[in-house]
Amino acid sequence: MLGECLDVLSPERGGIFVDCTAGGGGHSFGIASRLPEGSRLICIDQDDDALEACRARLGGFGDKCTLVKANFRDIAAVLDDLKIDRIDGALWDLGVSSHQLDESERGFSYMHDAPLDMRMDASAPLSARDVVNVYPENDLYRILNDYGEERFASRIASNIVKYRETKPIETTLELADIIIGSIPVAARKKEAQHPAKRSFQAIRIEVNSELSVIKPSLTSAIERMSPGGRAAVITFHSGEDRIVKHTLTRLADPCECPKSFPVCVCGKKPQIRLLSKKPLLPSEKETEENPRSRSAKLRAAEKI
Ligand SMILES: C[S@@+](CC[C@H](N)C(=O)[O-])C[C@H]1O[C@@H](n2cnc3c(N)ncnc32)[C@H](O)[C@@H]1O
């Protein structure tokens, strides 16, 4: 949803913009190309490989772009370190990148055999191997159910625990086989997608604490925005979208007074206005060209 993001952010206005999920630099390139002279783009990612790809992609922009390895939860500290007080726009393109999924040795994919890893930040302490070999059965169930919306979460969690009693689960295909074996054949036949897709997504979300960082990052970035600054957030997962929707709705209407009060007495003022009530969805052309974009949603807001 590059075009839609650029329309929302309108970097042509100039100023300081932050791409909180720089990845391979696709969106950053679009933003940097439209930024006038004297403007600046800060590109954040927690993945060293992503930053390397992004650096190669943005090389032509010289010091217009600054790349920072960080978790976007820490955006306020990143801005403080760069001595930046106010920003004019920020983008989050949440979730995993195609590059991370396609690089089999990163252990994100159920299609290729590799050590179970799934860490976006390779220096982070928790890997997928730890989650599946250490977490108690009820936590595994909760993760598969809540983050994967997996109907067979209970059977999968139980089979993971049974398997690891004999030996640790080491590889992606070992885990995929346990998951596949936990789903009844009839249910598997009905599904268009790979039977391990939801469980792998759930474990990845847990490994990278993907949901808990969204609200703090959005809130701090919006707090640092100048009036008229724009925030654009792309989600791929209903859990992400729920948090983004709730966070933006609260920032747009924080008043806690009972509905029966004629005027607000709590003093909480709106910080943003929502640019659309409903999320924007990718065009038919985009979903045809890139089937992974099918579940994307874009929410956007403007600082008051
Ligand atoms: C969907 S990709 C972004 C792709 C990018 N927009 C592009 O055009 O290439 C998401 C990226 O965000 C990074 N990421 C996810 N969560 C993050 C976090 N909490 N802090 C920093 N980076 C994060 C991932 O490492 C990944 O590279």
Task: Record keyword descriptors for this entry.
14% strand; 304 residues; seven-stranded mixed β-sheet; 7 strands; single chain; 14 helices; binds S-adenosylmethionine; alpha/beta
Poorly predicted residue ranges = none
Strand proportion, as a percent range, falls in 5-15%
Which ligands occur here?
S-adenosylmethionine
Please state the overall shape, judged from the principal axes of the Cα atoms: globular
Distance from N terminus to C terminus (CA atoms, Å) equals: 25 Å
Compute the number of helices: 14
Instruction: Assign a percent range to the helix content.
Output: 40-55%
Mean pLDDT: 97
Helix and strand arrangement:
Blueprint: H1 2-9, E1 16-19, H2 26-34, E2 40-45, H3 48-58, E3 65-69, H4 75-81, E4 87-93, H5 98-102, H6 128-134, H7 137-146, H8 153-166, H9 172-182, H10 185-190, H11 197-207, H12 214-223, E5 225-235, H13 238-252, E6 272-274, H14 284-289, E7 297-303
Parallel strand pairs: 1-2, 1-4, 2-3, 4-5
Antiparallel strand pairs: 5-7, 6-7
Helix pairs in contact: 1-2, 7-8, 7-11, 8-9, 12-13
